[in-house]
Amino acid sequence: MRKLTLLLSLWSLPCLAVDLGSICDKEARSFGDGSGKDSISKECESYIRSGATAHQRVRGALSGISVSGHGNILIVDDPKTKIKGQNLIAGKYTELDDLRALALDEKNREIIALNGNGDVLFYSAVLTGNVAPRRILRHKELDGAVSLAVNPRLDQLLALNPKKSEILVFSRKGNVDAPEGKKHLSVLKVFSGVDGEFLLVDDQGEDLFVIAPATGVVTVVDLKSNAIRTQIKFPKVAKVLEIGYRPSTKDLQLTTADKVLTVGAPDETTPPPSPSPSPSVEGLPQ
Questions:
Q1: Residue 143 sits in a domain of what CATH number?
Q2: Distance CA 40, CA 270 (A)
């Protein structure tokens, strides 16, 4: 009897997870519509925070703002916020569904979300709630993208598509709902032949880090010359929980389940390893 009880308990765990996911999805969809409290349960908050992948969480290196999300809800932690209680982006007006990736634009105080349908949604990091996106960037080449990054120097958004080994560059101001002639939806530039799983741009908009934990390589692209400056080796990691950047030391921090890996900043004089050709760049020049 004891063995049977244990087996039944273990068998029921996945079902409980699925049920909680459905409950949280329902809570998020009704958030801010007047049918209940403008909050989600502590169980769903914990479920979202713990379930967010490294692609679904981001932390600002300068502002300290951190965002984690899952499905159709974002939890925003801002050390300077005056909002008491939960700071959420959820509800029918957000158009958020099946979240794939997040980026944070600290310069413009915006949260950027990659939707399951390939749309890129821009939200205010300050005015949260059941809010519509400020802008929606839509392009067929965004299908298959898994990671986003913002270049604050050039006001651009970068999207990584690992299936094509491409990084697409768009205007940060792209908006499908803007008047004709002001949509800014075209691809400005394409970096081809760069492999990785995550993108990160330094706070000055000078270096693009293409991070591949599975192979233990960070490719550093000089965004002024569009050339690979160097590649940094680090121990291979099966699963990364969070990726961060420290402006003071100019290094990356890869958080895993049991440790934090620090990947040192590239030396300005360090040439890329040979052979290591620069990525081909197509589109408009900077």
A1: 2.120.10.30
A2: 49
